[in-house]
Structure formats: structure tokens, C-alpha cells
Amino acid sequence: MNEIELLVSFFKRAMPSVAAGGSIIVTLFEGDPYTLWNIRDLARHSGLQVERSFKFQASAYPGYHHARTFGVVKSKTGQPSAGWKGEDRPARSYIFVRKGEEPRNLTSNSKRKRDETSSDDDEDD
Predict the structure, then answer these.
(1) What does the pLDDT read at residue 85?
(2) Lowest mean pLDDT among 72-76, 85-89, 93-97
(3) What is the rounded distance in angstroms from the CA atom of residue 1 to the CA atom of residue 11?
């Protein structure tokens, strides 16, 4: 199964678990091959729409560290390599909701106009 098939399968299987007003958040690195997957269209075909997207800030999640898909890269001495840090790569988080739905607000303080809360700087929405 390739990455695109994996994302489509994930969206289709997640749909029954998304409560009314709920959302799914997916974060991908920016750039090839991730942007070539066109995650917005993959989700759209599964009955979802992008509510908003924003630049992922690893520092906003204390204790977060990127884990490589293929495991830890080790140096010639067998120690974990510090040559590449996933946290330093630009990434984007996408918040998906069911088509035609708005996400529910979890607190009354978070209720604002959509334009004020959206930090989506994509131009294709």
C-alpha cells in the first residue's frame, strides 16, 4: 500500500468515528512528495473538507519529537545520528470536518468569527 492509498483508507475508516461537529487533524511535512499527495482532494473524496490549515509549530507541543518512519538513523559508531531533525522541517496541519459541517467549539471562550481564528495562509481554499 502506498502513502496515498494509506491516507484514503485512513479517512474512510475514520469517518464513522467522527462525531457531529468533530474533526480529524493530519500533519504533513511541506514539500515533495507530501504536497504531491494533494491531501485536500483525498479527504474531499472521503466526505471531508478542510476547515482550516496552519503551519505546525513543534515547540507548541512540549515533549514532541519527530520519529522517522523507518526508525532511528545511526552514525557509524552506532549512536543515534543528530544530522537531521524532523522538528526543524516546515510542516502543515490540516483540520478536516465532515462536508457541510462546522467544528464544534469546546469552550465558550473559543467561539469567534471564522476569519479571526483562521491562520490558514493557503491560497487554494
Answers:
(1) 55
(2) 85-89
(3) 15
CA 63 to each of CA 12, 114, 121: distance values in angstroms, whole numbers, following the listed order: 30, 30, 27
Confidence of residue 69 (pLDDT cuts 50, 70, 90): low
Here the cell at position 117 is 481564528
Q: Write out the H or E segment, with its range, that includes residue 29.
A: strand 24-29
First to last CA, the chain: 29
* Helix (H), strand (E) at residue 53: strand 48-55
Running DSSP on this structure, what letter comes out for residue 102? P
Strand 91-98, strand 48-55: pairing: antiparallel
- Residue whose C-alpha cell reads 487554494 in the numeric block: 124
For the segment 77-104, the average pLDDT, to the nearest whole number, is 77
Contact of 4 with 37, CB cutoff 8 Å: yes
> What are the tens digits of pLDDT across the range 50-59?
999 999 988 8
